[in-house]
Amino acid sequence: MSVTVRAPAKINVYLGVGKARPDGFHPLETVYQAVSLYDDVTVTDAEEWSVTTVTDGPHVDGSAIPDDDTNIVIRAGKALAAHHGVDRKAGIEVRKSIPVAGGMAGGSADAAATLVALDRLWNLNTADADLLELAAELGSDVPFALVGGTATGTGRGEVVTPVEDNGTWWWVVVFNDEGLSTPSVYGAYDLLEGGDHDYRIQPAMLDALRDGADSDSLAVFLYNDLEDAAFYLRPDLERAAEAALECGATMTLLSGSGPTMLAIASGAEDARNIAGMLTGRGFDRTAVVHGPVAGAHVVAYG
Ligand SMILES: C[C@](O)(CO)[C@H](O)COP(=O)(O)OP(=O)(O)OC[C@H]1O[C@@H](n2ccc(N)nc2=O)[C@H](O)[C@@H]1O
Ligand SMILES: Nc1ncnc2c1ncn2[C@@H]1O[C@H](COP(=O)(O)OP(=O)(O)OP(=O)(O)O)[C@@H](O)[C@H]1O
Fold first, then answer.
1. Which structural domain range is residue 208 located in?
2. Residue-wise pLDDT tens digits, 171-223
3. Which of 8, 160, 249, 278 lies in disulfide reach of 34, CB 3.0 to 4.6 Å?
4. Which residue's alpha carbon is nearest to atom 3 within ligand 1?
């Protein structure tokens, strides 16, 4: 018996960051959107915990992914088993298309998928609130990977509240060869900015999502407080943003803590045109995605 769960990458269409808390985490006001780039996680009963990674997508370098107990999927599986007091183990296969350390919450997606897959494999019927709590213990972005769609994130990002989004938004994703560590970007943010500003989500941004109108009405609200810090650490990222604007994008944005960059497009065709032009300029690792899409969900059982 095995269960396969698909979980989406996320982008932060808005990421406001406050001053670091005593526990080292930063208070956030963010608007998450789940986009159409996915990892698939398959779980099977086993005598011992194990993880294997299949790097499916052209943008994934699997070399930085641990194959031992430090992999977030094994931490997720053990946490679920401990929560229910069950002495069971699983072999976990992760088929990755989300870039590693790319700021699209790939590891978080895998963790959320593992929770849902093992819950189903073992017929645990875990309450949603308990799944969200286990997810939050695994990482700040993990609860959103369960919920999907479009949602605000507060606290350290783990308090997720769905928002109405009637649009289909198209994005050009510009990948980068070299990952960027999330703590290092928050560290640079502390040095450069410190978080002494109003970082709240503007209600008008939520109106634009709810109205689902044209991309220009959302583009004006796109913002990421970590962008300057990521550009400071990796000046090459700014060139990708400039190139995307020169190729016709109305607005660009760092994805999460980077190094992936995003450009908003007015539709699928516009997105493919921008991606094609970026390829012509040497930015050949791009993808066209849309959001919002569903959170972690079962795609195969049996
Ligand atoms: C950049 C974002 O992806 C935006 O959604 C997230 O804030 C990062 O979420 P994540 O990778 O799930 O982060 P976690 O695994 O919870 O934390 C990793 C590290 O990121 C930093 N971190 C994370 C979240 C947060 N609100 N403040 C932080 O300072 C801390 O140094 C922490 O030790
Ligand atoms: N299943 C996993 N997939 C990817 N990385 C993992 C996994 N388990 C542990 N890791 C470790 O976590 C690090 C960050 O991985 P991840 O791909 O989640 O980053 P990210 O997408 O930038 O995250 P976020 O956007 O949430 O900050 C990797 O460099 C790797 O060492």
1. 169-291
2. 999 999 888 999 999 999 999 977 789 999 999 999 999 999 899 999 999 99
3. 8
4. 256
